[in-house]
Amino acid sequence: MFDNLQDKLDLAFKSIAGQAKLTEINIATSVKEIRRALVAADVNYKIAKEFTDKVKKDALGKHNVLKAVKPGELMVKIVQDEMTELMGGQSVGANLKGNPGIVLISGLQGSGKTTFSGKLANFLKTKKRMRPLLVACDVYRPAAIDQITVLGEQIGVPVFKDIENKNPVDISQQAIAYAKQHDHDVVIVDTAGRLAVDEEMMNEIEAVKNAINPTETLFVVDSMTGQDAVNTAKAFNEKINYDGVVLTKLDGDTRGGAALSVKYVVGKPIKFISMGEKMETLDVFHPERMAQRILGMGDIVSLVEKAQEQYDEKEAKRIEKKIKKNKFDFNDFLSQLNQIKKMGDIKSLIGMIPGMSKMTKNIDIDDKSFGKVEAIIYSMTKQERANPALLNMSRKKRIARGCGQSIHDINMFIKQFNQMKKMMHQLSTNKGMANFMAQNSNRK
Question: What is the SS3 assignment for 271?
Fold first, then answer.
């Protein structure tokens, strides 16, 4: 995510990193490179120029005041602050109050509206403890109703649909009446994708909005389309005056133009960001955290939040006891692996760790990386998973045949598992932790 923009901004900061102090000359040079980086990321030139003019003014105002701060670090901080402000300054929540709360989803064809609708329903159900109802109002796209039905079944959220009815206004009104009768506190209306130039379709969504009076209208933007998405967002806003923007497909080849420009152009906040197809991969948008990620500084706060969401206190205590007794087995390992996978896309998670996004950008890391390990464990019997000591050569050969791996792969995995198990057991005691700290301090 934002790899190219990150690389170009790095070059801009390096031009002053070795300087003794900020001067008008090196500030001007750095600002010029920052502007080029933004334009290359598909940010409108006018926005890029205004942004860099602010950066330059701020840098010139501080270059003689903050002498204790290194020039490169000061420039990064100034850019981070201005970038945060450009994207909205602070997070803005969705208005879900009502009887029920009504969320109208709009956007272009192929922007990811239906998938986002499912993710939002899952988000509200699992994190907000709400009772959402999904509404299938895309009566034009083949299989659209089937798609949202499958998503609803996947996350355990009911879907209101009327296959015979081709009028989105009628369907949405009926859905709200149904929601009131069945105690749903929020209704998510998924509409058909439409082009801003299609007057008939634009009039239709305007009619839907007027009929149901939503508490929240969201415009879904495919972040991979850059500046075109921003221009479309402006056209939609002029027609239906939505409340906020959703950026989807942030795990793709995103240049960053949409994320950086949409708030400035439209005047509406980004409320959610989405990446990948998993229903768990939806986050509230935080401008400051996004600025940090774009600048390669990671996002440790979001990472901790994701870990806390998946934290199972009862399971954690059970695992802790087994580690202390040195009884940690393959079933426990599989349980921990599944908890990590629930947190979202692995490469995105690693990118939240400061400095790691640059180290891993050319490495193919995804959930399939765990497939090999899972295949090995699932090829074991229940007894073997619970008691790793049983794995003799004949058992390893059978496991290798079952998972399609070599004996060498099996041996390597078991060796790594045993090393990890030993270290966790050592660290589970105060004495072990003290020895570990002493050993590492002696290596320095």
Answer: strand
DSSP string over 58-88: HHHHHTTT-TTS-HHHHHHHHHHHHHHHHTT
Q: Residue 35 and residue 80: Cα distance in Å, rounded?
A: 14
> Residue 318: what pLDDT?
84
- pLDDT at position 275 is 80
Q: Residue-wise over 390-413: b if at least 16 C-beta within 10 A, else e?
A: ebeeeebeebbeebebeeebbeeb
Please say if the pLDDT value at position 178 is more than 50.
yes
Residues linked to residue 104 through DSSP beta bridges, in sequence order: 189, 217
C-alpha–C-alpha distance, residues 226 and 256, integer Å? 7
CB atoms within 10 A of CB 336: 13
Tens digit of each residue's pLDDT (9 = 90 or more) over 197-253: 678 888 898 999 999 999 999 999 887 776 777 778 888 888 889 999 998 887 665
307 contacts 343 by C-beta, under 8 angstroms: yes
* pTM, 2 dp: 0.67
Higher pLDDT, 371 or 52: 52
| CB atoms inside a 10 Å sphere around CB 354 | 15
Structural domains of the chain sorted by starting position, each given as residue range(s) with its CATH number in brackets: 3-86 (1.20.120.140), 101-297 (3.40.50.300), 305-443 (1.10.260.30)
pLDDT score for 115: 92
Report how far Cα 8 is from the mean position of its chain's Cα atoms.
23
Give, as one character, the DSSP assignment of residue 286.
-
Distance CA 278, CA 282 (A): 9
Query: Which pLDDT value is given to residue 229?
Result: 74
Q: Are 249 and 229 in contact (CB under 8 A)?
A: no
Residue 220 in 3-state DSSP?
strand
Judge contact between 212 and 204, C-beta under 8 A: no
Q: What is the DSSP string of 171-197?
A: HHHHHHHHHHHTT-SEEEEEE----TT
DSSP 274: E
Taking the C-alpha atoms of residue 338 and residue 368, their distance in angstroms, rounded to an integer, is 13
Q: Which backbone phi and psi does 277 adopt, to 5 degrees?
A: -100, -15
